């Protein structure tokens, strides 16, 4: 082959190779379709997990936000005997800490144990609100891989069924459909489960930080009520 012929043929071969490579690249939409009907519940679970994570992330972040001067103002009002002003301030602020302190202020004059119990009850309700949806997210993290494994079993049964019906005319392409379904569902289930698992633990850690803050503010308020009157 002459040098000129080689130079002329190289671009053509490169284009052909690129076209062949493009044809062999994996189409993820086609892959999902070939996964069979088992992909429908897994895609639904992925959207559920995504919605819960985004919604809870912003809800927990809002609950964690706190005005550093809030407790100082509450302390000043209570020391000055301005209980109504302290109560009004709590109603103006929209976060779990203000709602707990508001309940405690409304119980001032009763035994401290009753005040503390009332605050704890409100705190438990606030924590329950923050944890809304987290059990579902945990279920997705465990359920998605199991559904994926179910798809794996279905795909392998399909492959062996095709093999049994083929008799002596067994072809690799005959088995590829069932095996393809098995692998796609397994990968999809594991991917959704892993992402939901990390999302769940991330949100749980954020909730725990809010819980520690609520406990600290409760102790601060109770110490304020326990201070001797000058």
List the helices and strands and how they pair.
Blueprint: H1 3-24, H2 28-34, H3 39-64, H4 70-79, H5 83-92, H6 96-106, H7 112-130, H8 134-166, H9 172-226
Protein name: MotA/TolQ/ExbB proton channel family protein
Domain MotA/TolQ/ExbB proton channel: 94-215
Transmembrane segments: 32-54, 137-159, 179-203
Q: Give the SSE order as H and E letters.
A: HHHHHHHHH
Query: Helix content range of the residues, please?
Result: over 70%
Q: Report the principal-axis shape.
A: rod-shaped
End-to-end separation in angstroms reads 106 Å
Sum up the structure in keywords:
transmembrane, mainly alpha, 9 helices, rod-shaped, MotA/TolQ/ExbB proton channel family protein, single chain, protein transport, 230 residues
Descriptive report:
Keywords: Cell membrane, Membrane, Protein transport, Transmembrane, Transmembrane helix, Transport. Belongs to the exbB/tolQ family. Its main location: membrane. It is found in: Cell membrane; Membrane. Mean pLDDT is 80; it is low at 6-15 and 17-24. This protein has 230 residues and is an all-alpha fold. Helix 6 (96-106) runs antiparallel to helix 7 (112-130). 23% of the residues are buried. It is built from 9 helices and no strands. The protein has one domain (35-53, 66-226).
């Amino acid at each position: 082959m002459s040098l000129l012929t080689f130079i002329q043929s190289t671009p053509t071969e490169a284009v052909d190779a690129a076209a062949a490579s493009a044809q062999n690249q994996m189409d993820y939409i086609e892959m999902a379709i070939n996964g069979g009907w088992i992909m429908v519940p897994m895609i639904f679970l992925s959207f559920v997990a995504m919605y819960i994570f985004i919604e809870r992330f912003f809800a927990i972040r809002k609950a964690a936000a706190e005005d550093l001067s809030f407790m100082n103002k509450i302390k000043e009002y209570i020391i000055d005997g301005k209980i109504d002003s302290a109560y009004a301030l709590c109603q103006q602020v929209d976060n779990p800490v203000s709602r707990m302190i508001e309940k405690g202020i409304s119980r001032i004059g009763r035994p401290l144990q009753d005040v503390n119990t009332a605050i704890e009850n409100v705190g438990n309700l606030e924590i329950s609100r923050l944890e809304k949806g987290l059990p579902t997210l945990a279920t997705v993290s465990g359920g998605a891989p199991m559904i994926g494994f179910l798809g794996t079993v279905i795909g392998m049964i399909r492959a062996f069924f095709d093999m049994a019906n083929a008799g002596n005319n067994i072809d690799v392409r005959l088995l590829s459909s069932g095996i393809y379904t098995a692998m796609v569902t397994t990968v999809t289930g594991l991917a959704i489960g892993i992402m939901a698992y990390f999302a769940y633990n991330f949100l749980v850690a954020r909730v725990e930080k809010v819980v520690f803050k609520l406990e600290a503010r409760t102790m601060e308020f109770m110490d304020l009520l326990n201070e001797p009157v000058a």
